[in-house]
Design a protein that fits this description.
Blueprint: H1 4-7, H2 14-25, H3 38-50, H4 55-62, H5 66-69, H6 74-97, H7 106-116, H8 120-135, H9 142-162, H10 166-180, H11 182-216, E1 223-228, H12 231-240, E2 252-258, H13 261-274, E3 276-277, E4 283-284, E5 297-302, E6 308-315, H14 316-324, H15 326-335, H16 355-365, E7 385-389, E8 395-399, H17 404-411, H18 413-417, E9 419-424, E10 427-429, E11 441-445, H19 462-480, E12 487-495, H20 500-510, E13 515-523, E14 528-536, H21 540-552, E15 556-564
Parallel strand pairs: 2-6
Antiparallel strand pairs: 1-2, 3-5, 4-5, 5-6, 7-8, 9-10, 9-11, 12-14, 12-15, 13-14
Helix pairs in contact: 2-4, 3-4, 3-8, 4-6, 4-8, 6-8, 7-9, 8-9, 8-10, 9-10, 10-11, 17-19
Bound molecules: manganese (II) ion (MN).
């Protein structure tokens, strides 16, 4: 078991005490692979230690499964380790009990988890826990593997990314990739095997050339190295580039780490003097950091042998922050008062905090359960959202401009369908009332009531619109059942790439089938598009043939059809 990191710590540290406690508490438990259970706690603790979380967080990481899996209670933790550790362990235990709904709206789920973790440290420890679970996933039963991998890819990896923890996010994605998309993973591995090795060797060859040139210009880089793009992020990029590897310039990128920001720009000048820059590919994420705080210079050049190579330039400090993300800020907060580890944190103090990080932290500090706190939300996470409460104080997250009808449908489609009125903060309001953050909303329902067509122009959320249309269609179907279907509707979900729509329509043209209507919707965030096409009634055989052809188009994810009126 990996206990070396514990040796670095002073004997009287609370972390030692937590380890001893976990060791005793889990002594009769084993992991699926036969290891003593505490080995998992040790790994999670070690990761948090490496992310430089404070003593309380590392202790909580060691103890995170104690209440969940053994006879000990939160009271026991409180008695032995104090309020702070107990608070963190309690949050982790609650999170463990949280049942992930199979809600297709993963964005809401992510936000929900954020609001669920009253303290961001809980989320960060949870991410360390999830990382180790994913690293040892092979030992779990298949069904749990699938669930873990899905949650990791849809919820935890994106959350890590938003928290600026780039390396962790990429690692989680890569660990989940073979389970979530096994075929694509195998294909990518096979396709890239040579490319990776070859390009890595090429980059290595370039390192001494650029190092020498930098030195000649008085720039002494801390490090010049190459990094290979992670598999899942490569896969995601390929989906956008017609699966064409020749269009991916950053499969392997050269990375220059300097001491100061000035040197970053000076190094950029040297690179551009040495090799001609590729037009329109320069990105200054130092002047304009990414939303998650990522800072670096990116440029693409025609390098040795006129080959295209991406070069990334950043300072040591940026490099560290790009990897640790929000954990770096927490570490700073926690370590401020602890002299022992201060040495490791030189140069961090003048770090400009990411605006949204401090906003989020403030929001969390003010999270007192009073509706007023919601008025202050203006962070990136919560932009364009309103947070309203049910009479039971559950938080419901809706688009700005949402109405009580949207709220009702969010509670349950039946509540939406049967909604006849609403009370906001105890007062009756019209159904088109615009909800505000902090409103307490109560829906008045009447059995057997059906939604009205006019609601479609009132509601703001996609979910409500969908439900209303379904309910209206169901009503119409009852009326038209006698006449039978008049059209076939195809739904095609695909990677969002240029030319895809044309590939689909040309299948219709080649089969001499007239399209009655066509619409497409793009989910920019997920890079998926859904195309809906109506055409006249076709024989089943012809439908099957079409479906098969759609499936063969590069980038297709799902196809389906149904008969409609
Ligand atoms: Mn665990």
């Amino acid at each position: 078991m990996a206990t070396e990191w514990l040796q670095e710590l002073p004997k009287e540290s609370i972390i030692h005490k937590a380890y001893a406690f976990a060791l005793e508490a889990h002594k009769d438990e084993e992991r699926m692979n036969g290891d003593p259970y505490v080995s998992h706690c040790l790994e999670v603790g070690k990761t948090c230690f490496e992310w430089r979380l404070g003593d309380a967080s590392v202790a909580a990481a060691l103890l995170h499964d104690v209440v969940e899996d053994t006879g000990f209670t939160i009271q026991d933790i409180k008695k032995n380790f104090g309020d702070e550790v107990a608070f963190l362990v309690e949050g982790l235990t609650k999170l463990e009990h949280f049942q992930y709904p199979s809600d297709p709206d993963v964005e809401n789920l992510r936000k929900f988890i954020i609001s669920f973790c009253e303290d961001l440290r809980i989320l960060i420890i949870k991410l360390a826990d999830r990382l180790h679970n994913m690293q040892t996933l092979e030992h779990l039963p298949k069904e749990r593997q699938q669930r873990f991998a899905w949650e990791t890819m849809e919820i935890y990896a994106p959350l890590a990314y938003r928290l600026g923890m780039q390396r962790l996010s990429g690692e989680l994605d890569d660990l989940a990739f073979p389970y979530v998309h096994p075929e694509e993973y195998k294909w990518l591995l096979k396709e890239t095997k040579n490319d990776y090795t070859e390009r890595q060797e090429y980059a290595k060859k370039v390192v001494p050339i650029i190092t020498k040139e930098l030195e000649k210009n008085g720039i002494h880089p801390v490090n010049v190295d190459s990094r290979a793009k992670r598999y899942f992020s490569l896969y995601r990029k390929l989906l956008r580039y017609d699966m064409d590897f020749s269009k991916i310039y950053d499969l392997v990128a050269l990375r220059i780490v300097t001491k100061t920001v000035t040197e970053c720009y000076a190094a950029l000048g040297v690179v551009h003097q040495l090799w001609q820059p590729f037009p329109n590919r320069f990105k200054d994420y130092i002047a304009r950091p990414k939303a998650n705080g990522y800072r670096s210079l990116h440029t693409t050049v025609f390098c040795v042998d006129n080959r295209i190579l991406e070069v990334q330039i950043r300072t040591e400090e940026m490099h560290e922050e790009n990897e640790l993300g929000i954990a770096a800020h927490w570490a700073y907060e926690e370590v401020k008062n602890s002299k022992k580890r201060k040495a490791k944190w030189k140069g961090v103090e003048d770090k400009k905090e990411l605006a949204w990080v401090s906003q989020l932290q403030n929001w969390q500090k003010n999270f007192t359960g009073e509706p007023e706190f919601l008025e202050d939300l203006k962070t990136n996470f919560f932009k364009d959202r309103v947070f309203v409460l049910t009479p039971e104080n559950d938080i419901i997250d809706l688009t700005v401009g949402a109405t009580p009808i949207d709220f009702a449908y969010r509670i349950h489609s039946d509540v939406g369908d049967q909604c006849v009125g609403a009370k906001v903060n105890g007062r009756i309001v019209p159904l088109e009332y615009e909800l505000h953050s902090g409103d307490v909303v109560e829906i008045i329902t009447q059995r057997g009531k059906k939604p009205s067509e006019s609601w479609l122009s009132i509601v703001k959320t996609v979910g409500a619109k969908k439900h209303i249309r379904n309910a209206l269609n169901a009503g119409r179907k009852m009326l038209r059942r006698k006449t039978g279907p008049t059209a076939v509707e195809f739904k095609i979900m695909s990677a969002d790439r240029p030319g895809y729509l044309k590939d689909v329509t040309s299948i219709f043209a080649n089969s001499k089938i007239n399209i009655l209507s066509l619409s497409s919707q793009i989910d920019h965030r997920m890079k998926f598009s859904t195309i809906t096409i109506h055409c006249g009634i076709l024989p089943q055989q012809k439908i099957e043939k079409l479906l098969l052809k759609f499936k063969k188009i590069a980038g297709t994810r799902e196809v389906s059809h149904r008969f409609v009126q």
